[in-house]
Amino acid sequence: MKDNTKCLHSGYNPENGGPRVMPIYQSTTFKFNSTKEIGDVFDDPTKAHIYSRFTNPTVDVVEKKIADLEGGVAAMCTSSGQMASLMSILNLCNSGDSFISSASIYGGTLNLFAVTLKKLGIECIFVDVDADEKEIQAKIKPNTKAIFGETLTNPSLQVLDIEKFARVAHNNGIPLIVDNTFPTPILCKPIEYGADVVIHSTSKYMDGHALQVGGVIVDSGKFDYTNGNFPDFTEPDESYHGTVYTRDYAFAPYIIKARMQLMRDFGAYPSGNSGFLLNLGLETLAIRMEKYCSNALKAAQYFENSGKFDIVDYPGLKTNKYYELARKYMPKGQSGVISLTIKGGKEAAIKFMDGLKLASNEVHVADIRTCVLHPASATHRQLTDEQLVACGINPGLVRFSVGLEDIEDIISDIEQSLSKI
Ligand code: PLP
Is the CB of 109 under 6 A from ligand 1? Predict the structure, then answer.
């Protein structure tokens, strides 16, 4: 199946006379005929649903659909994108370990990695997204367990050279984790370029309608965790009656381990109702992504030709530093987000944003409706000026997230606001 068809059909195949629309299983628990059958499911939790703190039939459909779209073998939904980032690392790193991350990542992820994981004894070593292989290799230590990067960075829109980061990871026997939130699997499938784990904030384009916060982790099923670097995968898990993840779940050891250890213990799992709403968003994801891309390119061209901006960052523009990389990794389009640095600095940026009438000023991005945000005052407020610059954010930067309104209306809104500056 191709992507539009997968968006509509993957994961759910109604039985004869069954409901056409995936039902909502809003139930904490599941009934079995005997104690023995419950015991059997505990022995092999992939056989049936036990408890909605870590599996649920409605969420399961969504997980299968996203895994299919990404070209992975299994997925696990989480209660937020932050939780997906956190669990993707905790599934590989224990206290005393380190991992490498591209410095160009979402501000919340940056804080999680640099501050909170540090308190847990896990060191994040940052590298420039444009670092060459030698520079990345130089950061690897004997305790380094993973490399992390964001395909198209929020909000600086730098493009990760996935193959380059995957080569360094694999030369060192460690997996590459890619946050693919902005492109979604419709525009880029990182597993095809060597990513081993893909994560998302589903709060963005996947949900698409600004209905609910969520996340997901996808296992490519390709990484060899028996290479000696990951004893937690190859030695019996005493907390789960001696399960050896690479032996007992060789098809997807990463995601089964994440579910049976991390989700079981932390319980940051979406409800059946949340799974249902996310599925509604996913059903139109492929068709929506096409329109976001075409609207954003036209808006970016308008911004560029207006002469009112010092920088118009959109990797679909020929003038953009990442144009060639974007054509390689996102040939169908470069998503709906544009980063702007207006002439006149922070003051002019705020004036421009406050003058918009159709586009709303809100802490969100990748919505169905056009929205804007000033990252230095909001999502990246906790970062110092040095940290802002290190992750590619100018204090005057405006993040413009193009929605699905008619492009003529989006542009006339921009025009009327610019005319007042
Ligand atoms: N990853 C990226 C690229 C994001 O943009 C965000 C949020 O903006 C996150 C992760 C965190 O996701 P959430 O807000 O769903 O926790």
Answer: yes
Which pTM was predicted?
0.97
pLDDT digits (tens, 9 = 90+) for 329-345: 999 999 999 999 999 88
What integer pLDDT is reported at residue 158 of this predicted model?
A: 95
Does ligand 1 come within 6 angstroms of the Cβ of 108? yes
- What sign does the dihedral 115-117-120-125 (CA atoms) show? negative
Backbone angles phi, psi at 49, to 5 degrees: -85, 135
Q: At what angle do helices 407-418 and 285-306 cross, to 10 degrees?
A: 30
The tens digit of pLDDT for each residue in 176-204 reads: 999 999 999 999 999 999 999 999 999 99
Mutate to test the pocket of ligand 1, among 203, 365, 391 (most ligand atoms within 8 A of CB): 203
Quote the pLDDT of residue 391.
64
Is the bond preceding residue 155 a cis peptide, omega within 30 degrees? yes
Q: Which of 106, 113, 116 to mutate to test the pocket of ligand 1 (most atoms within 8 A of CB)?
A: 106
Query: How far does residue 279's CA lie from ligand 1's centre (Å)?
Result: 18
- Residue 186 — φ and ψ, nearest 5°? -70, -35
Structure tokens at 175: 């997996």
C-alpha 127 to ligand 1 mean position (Å): 20
Beta strands in 183-229 (DSSP E): 197-201, 215-219
The number of the ligand 1 atom at minimal distance from the alpha carbon of 202 is 15
Statement: residue 396 has pLDDT above 90: no
213 lines ligand 1 (CB under 6 A): yes
- Report yes or no: 85 and 356 within 8 Å, Cβ to Cβ: no
* Range of weakest confidence among 147-151, 287-291, 345-349: 345-349
